[in-house]
Specification:
This protein is mainly alpha-helical and 140 residues long. The protein has helices spanning 6-14, 20-33, 42-53, 61-73, 82-94, 99-110, 122-127, 135-139, and strands at residues 2-3, 38-40, 77-79, 117-118, 132-133. The protein has a domain at 2-80. The strands form two sheets. Strands 1-2-3 form a three-stranded parallel sheet. Helix 7 links the parallel strand 4 (117-118) and strand 5. The longest helix is centred in the N-terminal third of the chain and has 14 residues, at 20-33. It is elongated.
Length: 140
């Protein structure tokens, strides 16, 4: 198994480099055709969301979600915390929030051990309909 880095995914999705993009395509093709397993880490998803939405690429949140869902759905790509990543990508694309905040909210919502999130970012966590507290609330 091999852990994927963001730059390989970006080259594959954007086809913006005449040397690296074809190599990324061949890597993913080999993954499908042979017994090669790639691992996708949530931190790489965070970076992909940020880069793909940048001015350079200008992807919409929906386009980011759809492209990353295709990777996650591939049988030889194993996504760490797959359920959380998928639900976070859905929330990210539907609400005006960063993927990281969506990921945190989904993690808390699916956890039996975590009570809520401590944040000053009440706007995004209200959008995500998840319980949160400000630090001063906990300090009372």
């Amino acid at each position: 198994m091999y852990l994927l880095d963001t730059n390989v995914i970006i080259r594959f999705l954007t086809n913006d480099d005449e040397i690296q993009s074809p190599q990324a395509f061949q890597l993913f093709k080999k993954t499908i055709e042979e017994d090669l397993t790639l691992v996708l880490h949530p931190l790489v998803i965070v970076e992909c969301c940020y880069i793909l939405q940048s001015k350079r690429y200008g992807y919409t949140k929906e386009e980011v979600k759809e492209n990353l869902f295709r990777l996650i759905a591939s049988s030889n790509i194993k996504t760490i915390e797959k359920e959380i990543v998928e639900k976070a990508l859905e929330a990210f694309s539907k609400h005006n929030v960063d993927f990281t905040d969506a990921y945190i909210a989904v993690t808390v919502n699916l956890s039996q051990d975590l009570h809520s999130t401590i944040t000053w970012n009440k706007k995004d966590f209200k959008r995500l309909s998840t319980e949160f507290y400000k630090p001063e609330d906990i300090l009372k």
